Amino acid sequence: MALRDFRSTHADVVLLQETHFEADKATQMRDRKFPVGFFSNSTAGKVCGTAVLLSRDFPVTVTGTKLDQDGRYTFVKGSLGGQSYTFASIYLPNRKQHKVLCSMLRTLADFQEGIVLIGGDINLPLDARLDTSWGTTSVPHSVLRQTHSALDSHRLIDCWRATHPTTRDYTFYSPPHQSYSRLDCMFLPFGHLHLLESVDIGLMTWSDHHPVLLTLNSPLVSPKDRNWRLNETVLNDPMIRQGTLQTLQQYFTENTTPTPHLKSYGKRIRR
């Protein structure tokens, strides 16, 4: 179900959290569309778990990976057409999120190359007023403050909030608390924010979380010049056909005599 959903979104890279695979068993979450996957599975059992899946339509050459033995992060880096990319799938605990995030970001800073994209379940709302249906959160203020400080120190921008500064939307519903929260985020360094084309919260399907769908513009691709072409359907209009015919007839009537420049040029050619 998950792979079918990924195919329907035409995703090139998928960042997964809470995979709950056992560390000592081979993971079978691959198919023809996503033949390559990297998984961090916890040695403590079927808890946590993160993954990065790469589509066959995204022929990146993987140059390095870093997998967490606790299943909290999966880092993958590679190159495509001379441009380096680093993808990070992260899953924070529901307590002391800031400490785990700081440790992850330090590890990522030593590993990363090129354009960096971080996505995952951070298990807290970055702005309780906008990112929760109740407008409040039980997460201590000190944890929120230090989480923001960690993101700021690495110049990481919450992509969805950057493009939806006042919108209220959520990625998770908690039945016990009867509340909605935006816990799933995608981050880009400030210096790469100009590559962001769009970011949206998708519909809930196979998971209990809504997916976050992000599109980046590749710095390697330059837009092609568009060639103008006549919309031939307009010629089906009798008035347009008649007007075009009259214009052509008038043009050839008024341009029967060559200009002196063209006559002179023609004589030189004949000699």
Order of SSEs, N→C? Answer: HEEEEEEHEHHEHEEEEEHH
Strand content: 25-35%
Alpha-carbon Rg, integer: 28 Å
User: For this structure, what is the CATH homologous superfamily of the largest domain?
Assistant: Endonuclease/exonuclease/phosphatase
Overall shape? elongated
Q: Approximately how much helix is present in the residues?
A: 25-40%
Number of domains: 2
**Unreliable spans:** 262-271
CATH architecture of the largest domain, by name, is: 4-Layer Sandwich
Structural class: alpha+beta
Number of strands: 13
State the strand order across the main sheet.
4-5-6-7-11-8
Q: Distance between termini?
A: 78 Å
Catalytic activity: Exonucleolytic cleavage in the 3'- to 5'-direction to yield nucleoside 5'-phosphates
Protein name: exodeoxyribonuclease III
Pfam families: Exo_endo_phos (PF03372)
Keywords: DNA damage, DNA repair, Hydrolase, Magnesium, Manganese, Metal-binding
